[in-house]
Amino acid sequence: MLIDSSQATLLVIDVQEKLIGAVTDPAGTVARTRWLLAATGELGLPVVFSEQYPKGLGSTLAELKEAARDAQVVEKLHFSCVAANCLPASLLARDQVIVCGMETHICVLQTVLHLCEAGKQVFVVEDACDCRSPLSQASGLQRMRDAGAQMVTREMVLFELLGSAGHEQFRHISKTYLVGEQP
Known about the structure:
Number of domains: 1
Domain Isochorismatase-like: 9-155
Structural class: alpha/beta
Keywords: Hydrolase
Helix content: 40-55%
Protein name: Hydrolase
GO molecular function: hydrolase activity
Largest sheet: 6 strands, parallel
CATH class: Alpha Beta
Pfam families: Isochorismatase (PF00857)
Order of helices and strands: EHEHHEHEHEHEHH
CATH topology: Rossmann fold
Strand order of the largest sheet: 3-2-1-4-5-6
């Protein structure tokens, strides 16, 4: 199955002020997530940010919110966005959910497992997920794969949303996001 821009939403899980410093690659995670938000934003993909207990863990990073100004922000106490019942109807109305964020083996994993159980087609952006240890990262990704989620990269998402080199934004997107060194 391919990502369909008319059926997909991007869900960015818990990339928050007081959590980012604990993951293995904070700067890279932020840069890759910002790249994903900017590129998919130019293609009109809706975005939802989740925040785990923002009173204690802070908000979604300002630079990510800046890259997706129209994004909805939802708060939760459950690790799973689905268990928290916080996902907006606009996301739930679509068949596909593209997921990234942190931590891979906790909030991302539990949300993805619940989305798969709910019959959603889930695409986990491996290069825009992070957590506190490489073992937890690998184990979380494998468990989501075993549950039926599709593992993708940022470029896979971008090219599937474009569909062809004939897309009206292909030249702009390729020159802006695919030339030179990427995060």
